[in-house]
Amino acid sequence: MITHPDETKDIDAMDDPVQQIAAKLHAMGPVVKGRGVGDPPGSKMQFGDVILPNIFIAAHLIEKECYAAVSWEAALRVYAKPKIFASKVYKPTFGHWGPILTTMDRPEHPKYRAVVQQGFTPKALEKYKDKIISPVLERRFNDLKPKGRADLIRDLTAHYAYDITSTITGFPEEDKLYIAYLFEHAHQVNTDPEGAAKANAEIKAYAQKKINERRADPRDDVITMMINSKVDGEPLNDEHLVGLTTNLMIAGIDTVFKQSSSIIYLLLAHPDQFDLLKADRSLIPQFVEEAMRYQGLGNVQARQATEDTELVGVHIPKDAVVFTMHGITHRDPCRWANPDELNLLREQKQHMLFSSGAHTCLGKDVARAALAGLIEHLIDDFPNLRFDPDYPTPRITGWTLRAPLSVPVIWDV
Predict the structure, then answer these.
(1) The whole model's pTM is what?
(2) pLDDT in tens, 41-74
(3) Which end of the chain is more exposed for a tag (fewer CB within 10 A), N or C?
């Protein structure tokens, strides 16, 4: 069953959650002070009358206070100063996987990022496009094309995202459901700590098993590449290999799966935009960028202040958690004209879906290629694609990782 990692019943009841919440937060200022609430305290965060889920940061760290970098300028400054706004904030929740890029700061982070980056060079990207992304999309669409009807989340995006990421990284297709189950439970550190601990132990054991297999049987994948790499002249130990392998697994699958699900929904909910792409395929990259700005999957990132500091005029005390919420920042009217409109023809400006600064997503161009390829196949293989009238109109739901859970469609055969 495809679900969200957070409980968002109140948010999902809103007509347009991102627009409504963004309007409230931007009205409070570029940086907004809040605090942890919920049961346990800190499992949710409150800014004014806005209450949002917190699944990525240990609840006790925000129980007394926290901050939201709402404006583009504020969020950009957070990412531009990794020495002051540190990624160590993730260690209580993600540290059990071992050393992962998400939790690392200098001097450790650039050394291990350089190792993983070898698997995401321009040359590697071209190989992935030709040998992995294109064949995966062709196979998945060929299976569905004669049917004329499908739920494109259940029958397409939940599969092709794993197919691409697992092949690049080095996981077998038959483990797909098991991995999805583990990561769904691993996120529940604040609401189900025992279940999360069990899932995280299994994730580490699974990653270690795959590393052992690659040592015995090297292949052309990222796990093998990391095994053969060195940091400070020494091979990576198992602790680092497990952490980095786990990091790649969740980052790649979630990004492509959730964002491609939202892109399908947006194309069908905005047929004027879809028609523009059908008439001019060269606009597809622009639509991908605009879709990621308008309805990006990642609404919550965080950093922790290493010293007393100031963020666009607001005092941030040492050890305070500062949240960046990309969905909110992407509706900043000071950066985008009419930010609540989906418009692929708007002036193209950098967004933050893939973060910014030292922790910019290494797989961003793989994700872009997968999303663009998906749209090409939707146009070519599913003529007259439309929502299935026998089902309620789908919606994008959730908050931390926003996406539709189901998109039933029909097309002409």
Answers:
(1) 0.94
(2) 899 999 999 999 998 899 999 999 999 999 999 9
(3) N
